[in-house]
Amino acid sequence: MLTYRNRLHLMAGLGAATLFGAKAQAASNYPRRPIELIVPYAPGGGTDLLARAFAEAAKPHLEKAIGVVNRTGGAGAVGLSEIMAARPDGYKLGLGTVELTMLPHMGLVSFKAEDFLPVARLNADPAAVTVKADAPWKTLQEYLDYAKANPGKVRVGNSGTGAIWHLSTEALADKAGVKFNSIPYDGAAPAVTALLGGHIEAVGVSPAEVSAQVAAGQLRILGVMADERLAAFPDVPTFKESGTDISVGTWRGIFVQKRAPDDVVEILREAARKTANEQSFKDTLKKLNLNWAYLDGPEFSEQVKAQNATFATLMKRIGLAR
């Protein structure tokens, strides 16, 4: 004869099995409707262009289309917060950037890096210093010498306070012993537009985000914060070559709410792997001068964890942590 406690255990077990079965069925039918891919920055920047390239290349690998939605503000905080707070069903993804390991240390957001589940890294790019083609500085050293002689006079645009391109400028200032006037925008594209309009003297964004203007002869890249010169810009020196030992950059990848069902995550991982390896996707990134840098979820998770710890230390040292 079943005791009252045993009956409760049996009923709980049956309820859990029913719930598990419902989740498994939901996952096996995933996706049943279109998927949103949230981009935390303005249209036209590197993150936005990457997201749209991914959404297009993913069409053969998911039964429903991915729609790109831009949610700007707060150096990515608005869009990243929406991803973190999303229903954990896999229908709202995020094109996350390195900022999700940085913003929490500034006390500007309610989320932590651990609130996101990495699905796949798609891209990684270094920071660069870019000026107008008619700027008086022809070399990185001339630029730094001027900044040192004129503290706070050089206005450098970035993609938002606390964003990686802001941090790259502050890290350079710390390393070179100079002071810049950092100007935040809602993404790299508005910062580049401001530079073209003469409202600022430089931008600290990635080479890909200025490549079209460089090719048109409007802008000039003085240096890249990478360990080696970039294949797309072989004539641009690294900062290390120019005597300033600094290497800073971003990564971009697909994230999902951390409580998303395992089966859904596996479907997304497989789709992301196939999409990242589509030749059309690689070709598009090459045209955009975005560096293809695929990593599967588990390996990507390790990088996110390591950089979260690194930025916690660095941002405290340069006075950006709260």
TrEMBL record:
Assigned keywords, A-Z: Signal
Presence of keyword Coiled coil: no
Pfam families according to UniProt: TctC
InterPro entries attached to this UniProt entry: BUG, Bug_dom1
Signal peptide: 1-26
This protein's name: Tripartite tricarboxylate transporter substrate binding protein
Source organism superkingdom: Bacteria
Family statement drawn from the similarity comment of this UniProt entry: Belongs to the UPF0065 (bug) family.
